[in-house]
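Duplicate of earlier report; DDE Tnp4 domain-containing protein input re-posted below.
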Amino acid sequence: MMDPSFLLMLSNLLHFHNHLDPASSLVSDSYAPSSSSTTSPTATLSSNSAAPLLFLTIASVLSYAASVRSSSSTSSPSSSSNNNHNNDSSVDHSVSAFRALTTQHIWNMEAPMRDTQWRSSYGLSYPVFIRVVDKLKPHILQSNLSLPADYAVAMVLSRLAHGYSAKTLATRYSLEPYLVSKITNMVTRLLATKLYSKFIKIPVSRRLHETTQFFEELTSLPNMCGAIDGSPIKLLRLPPDQELHGHPSAYRCRQGYPAVLLQVVADHKKIFWDVCVKAPGGTDDATHFRESLLYNRLTSADIGWDKVINVRGHHIRPYIVGDWCYPLMSFLLTPFSWNGTGTPAQNSFDAALMRGRSVVLDAIGLLKGRWRILQNLNVGLNHAPQTIVACCVLHNLCQIAREPEPPMWKDSEEGGPPARALESEKSFYCFGEISRQALAEDLRQRLSSRRDCALLMTFFTWKFKIAVEEFWPNAPCHYYAHSKPGLLFFMEVVGVKIAFFKFPETAILITL
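Output:
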């Protein structure tokens, strides 16, 4: 069937032709004389006017165009519907599909396969996802959201895990972009406020003792309870200058891109026990630290750390470690130098301190590797802090649940001038200097003792081995390394267990 719009256009052309050349009218015209008869095609072609030929040419072109249009219009709906059907069948993010997955299909899957699928989609395993939903569901229900709570949380987690924009997620979930942004803001705000105090806690009591013990095994420095560092979170875009009060350069970090600054303190399990996002990317670490709640609590002795040890006659309270961009305090120890120009005792202390600091670098790398939205944050500047803190809460949930660690995101190395103590921090600086020197000298002495023990162990092993070989040339001997206090080495000769112990004054050989 011919397109009605084409018929109307053809009729208008015919009337226009009759108006130009009434003598060669192609159809009867009410405006033409009644005595005129219908002309033949040959008469039309032999007319003195060029209008008939022009008309036939235009009519042929329009007829061809109409036929092409009608065929394409009839075929396009079917092809369009086929494409939509293929897209929907490949990835269905509707509420009904999600509900079928979570209520029917999920329990028929084996746990490893199920959790792998959920990690690839939402950044964490299904049991951890259910835990997050259970914590947030009462608060989401109070917001009168038209979507189910678990569906809303899953949508936000997929955005945080993959870094999707609101527009991309809206297309996937058949929602309006403003609604996706609204749900993202709501869920991240709940994570950053309602769950922060439950999963980001300063270590005290038993956890404090466990943390300091691990750091001592890692660094040989006693009473270390955490490591602090800052990291710029790249912003996809900045708002107009007028919204930044004319200071857009304040958000340019040392790498040159717009960012906000994240400050975290991590323990030996790469779990954050303090998070602060209060400064633009151009702020130095020392200034950001002084603006944080942690600084106020530490300077006011508001944290109940009762674990005090004695090192060379000095009382050492629990402390955190950072690089030279942070000020030296009694509760925050930093290296003596950044280039190894100190004394042997100071250089040994710096090396040990940087081993302890490495845990916070790994924790930040895991954070950005697991929640990839932090690699290029595509939310508004007003919602950036709560989104970052929400990712830190989710990071801790994954670490506590011992989720598999994803590949770490590697930031470029940052540098900066050494921080100086303020006038109001002089007393903290003096105590920090005394504590740092005492710890360095104590570490140097203990390292020397360990070298002496190693030499003594080598001597005893050599002497005993010679004695055994002289008495029994082919005796099988086995040597075992040991790390218990005072135990030099442990060996077994022909089923007889022998241990060498070193005490302050002598070494004792015991046959077990």
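The first strand starts at residue 224 and ends at 234.

Merging into the original ticket.
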